[in-house]
Design goal:
About 75% of the residues lie in helices and about 5% in strands. By secondary structure, it is mostly helical. The chain has one domain.
Length: about 70
């Protein structure tokens, strides 16, 4: 697997995770692991981290394209 493919897959997964957390926030889905109820601020944090990592990976892809031409 090339670096570009790895970055594309990573960026897509991070974007999808952020999207699922956004849907959770706007649909008011509750999330519970055992007896632990995950608060909504945890999803806001996950959206922020997921979007940041996805943007970072997409920028690395664009830099990779420029440097490998």
């Amino acid at each position: 697997m090339s670096e570009k493919t790895y970055l594309l897959i990573s960026a897509t997964i991070f974007a999808l995770v952020a999207l699922v957390h956004l849907v959770r926030l706007f649909s008011h889905w509750s999330f519970q692991i055992g007896t632990l109820v995950v608060p909504f601020w945890g999803s806001w944090l996950a959206v922020l981290i997921g979007v940041t990592l996805s943007i970072w990976a997409f920028r690395l892809i664009s830099q990779w394209n420029v440097s490998h031409q």
